[in-house]
Amino acid sequence: MKSSLKSVYICPVCCSSFDLKNEVTDGIEVTTGEYVCENGHSFSIADGIPDFTWPKDLAITDEKTRQTYDKLADEYDKYADIPFMNFFTNPADIREKVANQLNINENSVVLEIGAGDGRGATHVAKRLGKNGHYFLQELSPSFLKKSFERLKEYSGIVEYSIANASYLSFPDNYFDAAFHFGGFSTFSEPDRCLKEMARVVKPGGKVIIGDESMAPWLRNTEMGRIMANSNPNYNFEIPFASIPVTARDVKIEWIMLGGFFLLEFTVGEGEPVGNYHIPIPSEKGGTYWSRYYGKLEGVSDEVKKLAHIAREKSGKSMHDWLEEAIRESAKKYTAE
Ligand SMILES: C[S@@+](CC[C@H](N)C(=O)[O-])C[C@H]1O[C@@H](n2cnc3c(N)ncnc32)[C@H](O)[C@@H]1O
């Protein structure tokens, strides 16, 4: 971990700032130490890599995933391209597509979570200049270590850490873009992960996630059944309802013959706010706003009928007639 970046991280549990204790540094890199936050959550740095894993006892599925990838690290070359080959797709084309959609430039600060052994990372790293930063997080320490050699030529801009992608150790609005490819369907808390990604990306920045999820209309085809039979992750349901309210221009695309999805959005500020104040030219009249917030206690059927007759005779919309009638009547009680 570069000394110059040691203050970037925050507690992945409570988002408070860290003290770095027992720091050992060679002047450029922090090799060992311990981050401790003001609420007492602590995370060690060993061999220059901080381990932000949370919860310390991972959910069963995450723990199983970590063990699986730790075991696979040395032989992953045998497996990595199979999902792409299943759909006659060139992995490099998909990785370039994702990198293009991140909309980054040479000075961007980018996060990849569940980055695996770094085999997709070169497609992003090569776009960054010496002032860019590329943070790679991964759950499996053995997998993460595999990316050191692969990304050696980018060591000046790459930062590594071990982490659960649903608990990110970065401040709000820190990144220009964040992405993940390939493991989302097995995350134990995909909903939380989406929110965390949106939290750490600046307004205007992109979040992209891609993984297995057979397009709903293909699940009952021969392809859908054959693929899900061997790999149940193809049955994964994309958690649309958990997309954060800050997401704008949300795009979903089924790639690789429909076997994988790419979810992309731009981070905005707060929930979207429309213009609800446009007068509606109809008998009812009013605006979306007045119809939602302008409700009073209900009146009797008889008074309602009277109001409709009077409105019709007045030639006004119901909104305008009611506004006038209530304003006039209220004056009697509110006039000084
Ligand atoms: C199929 S691999 C894909 C790796 C890489 N993203 C790529 O495109 O080659 C899935 C990766 O997600 C990681 N992963 C799974 N669950 C995770 C979690 N909860 N947090 C972070 N990484 C996770 C795995 O350890 C594994 O490296």
Report on the structure:
- The chain has 336 residues and is of the alpha/beta class.
- The protein has 3 domains: 51 residues, no CATH class; 208 residues, Rossmann fold (3-Layer(aba) Sandwich); 47 residues.
- It is 30% helix and 22% strand.
- It contains 10 helices and 11 strands.
- The strands form 2 sheets. It has a 7-stranded mixed β-sheet with strand order 7-6-5-8-9-11-10.
- It is elongated and about 85 Å long.
- The model has no long low-confidence stretch (mean pLDDT 97).
- The structure holds S-adenosylmethionine.
- S-adenosylmethionine binds next to α1.
- CATH H-level homologous superfamily name of the largest domain: Vaccinia Virus protein VP39
Strand arrangement in the largest pleated sheet: 7-6-5-8-9-11-10
Oligomer: single chain
Shape: elongated
> Unreliable runs, pLDDT <50, ≥5 residues?
none
- Broad CATH class of the largest domain: Alpha Beta
Average pLDDT, all residues: 97
CATH topology of the largest domain: Rossmann fold
Give the bound compounds: S-adenosylmethionine
Proportion in helices: 25-40%
